[in-house]
Amino acid sequence: MKQKVAARERPWIDGWELLIKDPKAQSGYRDGADINMGERKSGKPAVGRQRSSADAHAAYLNFIRWYVSGDRAYADCAIRICNNWSAKVCEESRPGLTGIPIGEFAMVGELLRCCPYWKAEDQERFKSMMRTYLYPGVKAFLDEHNKNGSSETWANWDICNVQALVAMGVLLDDRRIFNEGIDYFKSGRGTGSIKNAVYHMHPGGLGQWQESGRDQGHAQLCIGMMGQLCQVAWNQGVDLFSHDNNRLLAGIEYVGATALLEKLPFKYYNNDSDAMNYWLSVNGYGRLSSPVWELLHNHYVVRKGIKSPRLFTMAKLTRPEPGGGDHFGYGTLTYTLDANASPYPGKLPLAPAGLTARPGLGRVTLDWNPAATRDAGGYVVRRAKSGSGTFETIGNWNRCVANQYIDNGASPGTDYDYVVAARNPAGVGPDSELVTAKAEPPGPLPKGWSLSRIGPGTEDQAGRVEASYSETGSRSLRIKGIGRNLGGSEDSATFAGCEVKGDCELVGRLIISPQVNFPKSSSPKMGLMIRESTMPGAPGVALSLGEVGLRGTRARFRTEAGAKSVVCRGNDYSWMPIWYKLKRSGDTLTAWHCMDGKSWIEVGSSKVKLPEKCLAGFFVTGSDGSQTGTVEVMFEYVSLRTTELGTRRDIKDSF
Question: Which residues pair with 496 in a beta bridge?
Answer without folding.
Answer: 451, 618
